[in-house]
Amino acid sequence: MQIEQEIQKTGLKLIAGVDEAGRGAWAGPVVAAAVVLPVLDKTHGINDSKQLTPAQREKLFKKIHGLALAVGVGIADVAEINRMGVGQASFVAMQRAVDNLEIKPEHILVDGYRVNFIQAPASGIIDGDAKSLSIAAASIVAKVTRDKIMTEAHNKYPRFGFAIHKGYGTVLHRERIAKHGTCAWHRKNFAPIRQIITGSKVQVALHG
């Protein structure tokens, strides 16, 4: 994870990493995070959130907030996802995360290849959460924040099991939708949701 160090050699110091969680889910919001880290001499265990256990993510979530110069979170809710599509909603959430930083970054690293939606100097990094420490930190903050939101949603709609699958397309989630229909937290424009409701056979994308 040397990308930040290479950019810092050019004289830029305030570098934000941006990532999102929930883009592929069937229910719930897209949550994005932006993290500005100081120059660190070690990773402190920060890694791509997908490579960590829930307990590890929770621990690092607290550590990141202690280490970071700034942390911003942005959310695009289900109504926005249904209206503009999950791709555009993800961009909106990421821009909101950047806007919510308490300091203005000099450069932004975004997980992926699209950066034209960011209103600041930015670079897209494919598999950025495995190559950039600040993007990895952002992936953890986004994932933990979204998981907490989905656990709260479970309290309101326990029949769907949101606390278990966090809104992703698991077998359990598919079965619950087939039995109970949908609720306000479901992305009703998603093809898998429509197919389940109409009784069509779908291929379930296990948690991703």
From TrEMBL:
Gene3D superfamilies: Ribonuclease H-like superfamily/Ribonuclease H. A divalent metal cation binds at D19, E20, D111. Keywords: Cytoplasm, Endonuclease, Hydrolase, Manganese, Metal-binding, Nuclease. Coiled coil: none annotated. One of its GO terms (cellular component) is cytoplasm. Its cofactor is Mg(2+); Mn(2+). GO terms for biological process: DNA replication, removal of RNA primer; mismatch repair. It holds the Pfam family RNase_HII. It is found in: Cytoplasm. It catalyses: Endonucleolytic cleavage to 5'-phosphomonoester. Manganese or magnesium. Binds 1 divalent metal ion per monomer in the absence of substrate. May bind a second metal ion after substrate binding. GO terms for molecular function: manganese ion binding; RNA binding; RNA-DNA hybrid ribonuclease activity. Its EC number is 3.1.26.4. Residues 13-202 form the RNase H type-2 domain. The keyword Cytoplasm applies. Endonuclease that specifically degrades the RNA of RNA-DNA hybrids. NCBIfam families: PRK00015.1-1 (NF000594), PRK00015.1-3 (NF000595). HAMAP family: RNase_HII_B (MF_00052_B). Belongs to the RNase HII family. This is Ribonuclease HII. The gene is rnhB.
